[in-house]
Amino acid sequence: MARLAAAAEQGFRAVEYMAPYPYDARELAAALSDHSLTQALFNLPAGDWEAGERGLACLPGREAEFRDGVATALRYAETLGCTRVNCLAGRRPDTVTPAAARATMVANLRFAASEFKRAGVRLVTEPINCFDIPGYFVNRTAEALSIIDDVGSDNLFLQYDVYHAQRMEGELGATLSAHIGRIGHIQIADNPGRHEPGSGEINYRWVLKHIDALGYDGWVGCEYKPRDGTVAGLGWMAPFR
Length: 241
What we know:
Blueprint lengths: L1 H8 L4 E3 L8 H10 L3 E6 L19 H18 L3 E4 L10 H21 L3 E4 L15 H11 L4 E6 H7 L3 H8 L3 E6 L15 H10 L6 E3 L19
Parallel strand pairs: 1-2, 2-3, 3-4, 4-5, 5-6, 6-7
């Protein structure tokens, strides 16, 4: 709860984090209200994180667990007033073919998108680079969009993480321009190191202005590892205040 207070003290109006599930949803909702914060996003249950799992969507045989996770996420989203939930694809085991993983993910996303739509919550799914998470099933924007096309839901969108996109494909401006209408959430970090904007090779002054110019009206999540502490790492925001 202290992190929510710290976010508000630094001027943030919304927060996101991987998973609210270790905490009581009502206590989180009260803390959000106390600090006038919006819950922008959290992830669906991702399996056994400590054991290296990074999502369940592409895993055949885990469909019942995935559906239970959807129900849990919906309960939290309702209590927290959260209108975006991210689905992690997961790592594809060597024993599962790409075709089987894709078919499983499409079916799981179709179910989840429908359930979330009834609750007025948008579902997003993101590509993640293969360097940070080896074996992750969806690595590139085009791969994610192809799966989204197969799902065929109007309640499934791309989560565009600029850091992951830079590591896998580059062409940030062109990709954002081409797909902005299908992007439901954006996250940022610089490369190399996944540190704060301005620490690496990405021209965030240009990228963020470009996102604004495209008419994106959603949240931008700061999913980075500050080099010298959270507060010290916020200096990059000064030109945008």
